[in-house]
Amino acid sequence: MDDCSVELDPETELYCTLHLFANVINTPEIREKLVAGKLRCCVAKASLITDVHQVVVAANKAALNAKRNKLITRTVYTEVLFCLSTSKNISRSLAEFGISDSNKNILVILIHKLGEEQAMLEEVLGSVKGERIPISRLNEFTDVNLIKKTYKIGEDELRVSSLADTVISRISCKEFILSK
101, 31 in Cβ contact below 8 A? Predict the structure, then answer.
């Protein structure tokens, strides 16, 4: 299974590992476990992810915030969803990027120390009823129009930059720009 695992900023001593699932039939149950803190991961809508780097940038920001005791949300996992969004409204960010009961294609984001991934993954695999598919197929689940709308990206911008680069720029600079 081709998954994506990336070392985050050395200061954090953490890694980010992504797992893609399709045709998930129990998103309400997964959501319930996430809200209750029973799953040590972040779960995002695959439709709003254009590239793995988008998630890694958000995860890195979240991990650094956690390391520096500057979390804006309660956990590093909700912080990832907050960092994916251009909104400074926590509830809106979590609703926009977190899974809803109707989502069938989800991206599971693990943030872990070296060697912790397998135990965390087994926990997640036991909770997700869906088909685990290679992360290289992520773009098949990307909803370009939804991403353009969510990140307020115009066609003129896409003439000079890729969708992924534009999105990554937006989330990288969230603290410095006011959203439209």
Answer: yes
pLDDT at 143 (0 to 100): 97
Q: How far apart are CA 133 and CA 18, in angstroms?
A: 11
Stated as kind and residue range, the H or E segment containing 77 is helix 76-84
Query: How large is the average pLDDT for residues 94-108?
Result: 96
- Whether the predicted model's global pTM rises above the 0.85 cut: yes
Select from 20, 14, 15, 43 the least CA-distant residue to 136. 20
Alpha carbon of 120 to those of 50, 56, 108, 173: distances in Å? Answer: 25, 18, 11, 30
Looking at this protein, which amino acid is placed at residue 14?
Answer: L
DSSP bridge partners of 160: none
Q: Is 28 helix (H, G, I), strand (E, B) or coil?
A: helix
DSSP state of 145: H
Q: Which residues pair with 20 in a beta bridge?
A: 107, 133
φ, ψ (nearest 5 deg) of residue 112: -150, 165
Q: pLDDT per residue over 122-163, tens digit each?
A: 999 899 999 999 999 999 999 999 999 999 999 999 999 999
